Amino acid sequence: MKDVFARLASDFLSAILFLVIYLLTDNVILATSVAIAGAIAQVIYARVKGRELSFMTYASVALVVLLGTVTLLTNDPRFMLAKPSIAHFAIGVIMLKRGWMLRYMPPIVVETVPEYVTAAGYAWAALMFVIGAGMIAVASTGDLKLWAFYITVVAGGAKILAFAVQYVVLRLIVTSRRRAAARA
């Protein structure tokens, strides 16, 4: 489980940097600049160490650099409110890649129920599209309090709930299959 969180942290490092700096300083320009620098530094560090970065990491880095640059150039509050929806749509598209989630699963799950992990990956893609669409709807109202509530409570809560449901379902299926295999 620790390895899964380390991989997720690596894949979304620049987004995490942005969020932390923004929450600490309330400065979008500084947070965006640090996120872009962090994304570029991550790629350089991986290359120096001879490590390969995953597809998700490259996608995350590309999104941060592209969207961050647009944020720095426009400084448009409406774009900043809608920007996370673009990221959700892009991540949703990336999550349509068959088997993307297998790298985050423990070996016992990958060996026992790879087809369910693949289905869960598609469910995560659908969730990203729904959250992105909701974010656009909320951003279009221009209500910053509603947007902040949506992005933290609704979007964050939906992801936490999806993770919990996925964990329980996969655990039950793996346990059931392993018991059946032991009996046979």
Describe this protein's structure.
- This protein has about 180 residues and is mostly helical.
- Helices cover about 85% and strands about 0% of the residues.
- It has helices at about 1-10, 15-25, 30-50, 55-75, 75-95, 105-110, 115-140, 145-184.
For the termini, the CA-CA separation is 29 Å
Give the CA-based shape.
globular
**Count of beta strands:** 0
Rg: 18 Å
Q: What profile does the largest beta sheet have?
A: none
- Strand percentage: under 5%
From the helix content, strand content and strand pairing, which structural class follows? Answer: mainly alpha
Count of alpha/pi helices:
8
- How many domains? The number is 2
| SSE arrangement, N to C | HHHHHHHH
**Which segments are poorly predicted (pLDDT under 50) over 5 or more consecutive residues?**
none
Helix content: over 70%
Task: Average the pLDDT over all residues and give the rounded result.
Answer: 85
Transmembrane segments: 12-41, 53-73, 79-96, 116-141, 147-170
Pfam family, one: IspA
Keywords: Cell membrane, Membrane, Transmembrane, Transmembrane helix
Protein name: Intracellular septation protein
